[in-house]
Amino acid sequence: MALLGKLRLGIWLQLFVDALLLLAFMAQAFVAGCLLVYGYLPLPAGWGNQLITEKFPSGLVLSVDEFQLRAGGSIDLIGVKLRSTDIQKPLLEAKSARIKLRWNGFKELPGAESFVLSRGTLYIPAVYSPDGHHRPIFERIALRSIPGQTNWRVDRFAALHESIRLRGAFELPAEKEQLDETDKVFSVEQRIHQFYTQMAKLSQQKDRIRYFEEPTIAFKLASLDSQTQQMDLRISSRQFQHPEASAENVLLEGSVLIQNSEIVPLSNPRLSADRLKLDLVDLLAEGLSVELPGEELSGLLTGEWPNLKLAAQRLALRDLAFTSPILQVDPKAYPKIAFQGAVSSSNGAVNLSGQVHAESHNGQVQPRGSV
Question: Partners of 212 in the beta sheet?
Fold first, then answer.
């Protein structure tokens, strides 16, 4: 009887082990089948959202419709929505996002190597919107972010704001682990308020570039410290149409420091155009390059023209035509515009000085040299 009991126990143990092996084989077959057929393994959405809730900073709510584990170890998030606890409508929506994981063996949890977001839309809440409506401010967002010790580096960013295309790179500060829960909530709410306040101000300034046809704004923004950022800016457009001026292939470049919302130029901005026409003074310039004094940039933003340094391949002013002019222009006494510089001639350089009257279309030129 004892032998029979041992045999029965052995049979049950064998059946139990076989069942475990069968279940393991079925699980492996399911995973392999999903990877072969779909290219990914679906993960429970409830479990994924619960994990996000536990790890995500307080003050923000992130929800995902689907989680997909890829064969390479990355996780795709499908149907991403981000909102604030104080604002029910979403701040950000994206069709998909991908988290590429860095695996350090089985003893440690994997870390994020990069984060890629595709086809996103950023909304501005009604309380910050100039027209009082919750509406998109950036569409077709695509970006890649790489986490670091003190910040998240966004090395690729593209978006569309109405007819303005944005391209750039910037940094986002990482959440400090030593902050307590109250400080984290305040920090998130403060950052949201600061961000949307700045966006509202920038949105009000977009009329300054409304004459550019489908402009592209390329930028690189780097944080020097908690209060100072450096921005390298490049604005380009194929056409510029103004009631008093028109231009082709326009490019504006410059670098500034942003300190407590104040803009401090680091270099003189440069404006170039293949062709510029000013109907008001009957002026035509080809191959134009203009240097704007950085210390007078604030006046330029308010409509005050500063002294200009310009060079061109050809410059025509009514009946006068100049080859390769290099001029300093002083429009501060507008409608009188003073200038001085040099132009090219068959016998060498010719120095020029004089002034023109923008409204009466007359003026005087004093050349010195052989023409």
Answer: 240
